[in-house]
Amino acid sequence: MATAxxxxxxxxxxxxxxxxxxxxxxxxxVGCAVLTADGxxxxxxxxxxxxxxxxxxxxxxxxxxxxxxxHRKFKAIVVGTDLPDRFNGPCGACRQFILEFxxxxxxxxxxxxxxxxxxxxxxxxxxxxxxxLGF
Length: 135
Description:
Layout: H1 4-18, E1 30-36, E2 41-45, H2 58-68, E3 74-81, H3 92-100, E4 105-109, E5 115-118
Parallel strand pairs: 3-4
Antiparallel strand pairs: 1-2, 1-3, 4-5
């Protein structure tokens, strides 16, 4: 379980990552930060493309950075947008991507740094993961 200090660091990294968002089409900035089981922190933002299907969400950007550095287990993930009046969760593809790496704490954050914890079992109810393939 992430400590209050770790959550604060993740939120700050999430907000900073939004500053690097490349979203010329939607203008919808998304930031993400992840804490690995080893205590390392990675962050990332969404990257859009004129061919919309090639866009990459912040969650997949961030997890990909961590995975390519050798991490497979995660303690917590924070996702934030610029919408002040609601918490935004990951899209369906990102929910599946997060599920691939097993259970972790998920926090959704607003621009004012208020956050809510999303129970992992609500991330992708009846999701398809490694255990469905016998792993």
